[in-house]
Amino acid sequence: MITIQNVKYMSDFEAKKAIIDIGKRMYIKGFVAANDGNISCKVGPNTIWATPTGVSKGFMTPDMLVKIDLTNGKVIMGNRKPSSELKMHLRVYEENPEVMAVTHAHPMVATSFAIAGISLDRAVLPEAVVQLGSVPIAHYATPGTQEVPDSIAPYCKTHNGVLLANHGALSWGKDVFEAFYRLESIEYYATILMYIGRIIGQANELSCNQVDDLINIRQKLGISSGGIPPCTLNATNTQDVVSSVPSPKPEVQLAGVTPLVRPGKASEGQDIGCGCTGRVIQPPTAAADTGKTKEEIICEVVKRVTEQISSGNK
Ligand SMILES: [Zn+2]
């Protein structure tokens, strides 16, 4: 480690070794396919080491990495080109000077949530709440364009990672290991959410304009084969998704009447009995939704199950 202006940074050697090590883990865990993903690590107030474009993260050697000047994004050491996704990394460092490393990959479950437009913000796992917090989805942006860094900018100071709509996951931390552990936690948390019932079953498909932009990029890369997939007319991934938890139904307020506060129920910003303030989400009661009593619903369920069993026995 080296200290510059009272801030500790990894040395060039340590940073390159760590990036290669994390790249192998990323590849072995199946977070990336082919040459996907990228990793960067700060080694001074204005310098980072980063992965180049066009190499598998599982098979990198120190000579492949590039040293970048954060002030202008130019390569100052190394003879390869940086990834076009480096713009995202530069933006995280710019928005949050405390960040020392950034990792990006396309882990399967988290990316599926990013495609479905479902943010990771269910309070179901203490580790996830403490170490990760909620993980919003930044709205869709064409990979490689300036829109991508713009889409993640609002979250760089307030969150530890973000899903990129129809793309993947991005995380950051005080060193390259913390950034990668957060990426691992994002995928772990997404997998738990999937197992507990969010078997996804929905997807925001790319719009025809978004597909057109990608076909243009493909042509510029000299790729003339591959066909064009069907697309939707209107883009459905243009909004950020900060919370996928359904809001409780609004209560009718009568003018001039003080609202009733029920036991166990707090309004926005009120102490909810744990010394904290926040939104309390009441589970919807079936009886309230259907207008039937609990006993009537149980009778109905027993009746239907009995009917199904007897029809299955015929
Ligand atoms: Zn990517």
TrEMBL record:
Family matches, as Gene3D superfamilies: Class II aldolase/adducin N-terminal domain
Keyword tags: Lyase, Metal-binding
Entry-linked PANTHER family: 3-OXO-TETRONATE 4-PHOSPHATE DECARBOXYLASE-RELATED, FUCULOSE PHOSPHATE ALDOLASE
Protein name: L-fuculose-phosphate aldolase
Protein's UniProt keywords contain Electron transport: no
Domain Class II aldolase/adducin N-terminal span(s) in chain numbering: 17-194
MF terms (GO), sorted A to Z: aldehyde-lyase activity; metal ion binding
Biological process terms in GO annotation: pentose catabolic process
Keyword Ligase: no
InterPro entries according to UniProt: Aldolase_class_II_sugar_metab (IPR050197), Aldolase_II/adducin_N (IPR001303), Aldolase_II/adducin_N_sf (IPR036409)
GO (cellular component) term, any one: cytosol
